[in-house]
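User: Okay, second chain of the day. Same drill as before: sequence in, structure tokens out.
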Amino acid sequence: LYATFHGNDLFLPSQLPDILAQVKPKKSRKKHAHTESAVDHALKVVKAYTSTNYSKFFELYEEAPNMSDYVMDIMAPKIRLEGFKRLQNAYRNELDLPLVIETLGFSNKTEASTFL
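Assistant: Same drill. Structure tokens below.
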């Protein structure tokens, strides 16, 4: 996730599913179930990020397994800024705060107002 977010050429988003598929444990191994869910979650986050689906990104942020939310914490401000710019372009003068809060994963109006 971190490498994709920072544009590391070693981990291009198009190559990431293939790389993670090699890392992903076989489903028959029950002792690695937590690793499998973390890898599945990482793939979903990369897909949401690369497809600019900000709403999905913040849904995944809320359900992040293990400690992956710490990596997503690093990504969140930049993604919120990108998302806000796109919302501004799409809604022009009709952009309201509840939509921003819901789409960009803010917990309340105060947090969203502080960010803006």
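The radius of gyration is 16 Å.

User: Thanks, on to the next one.
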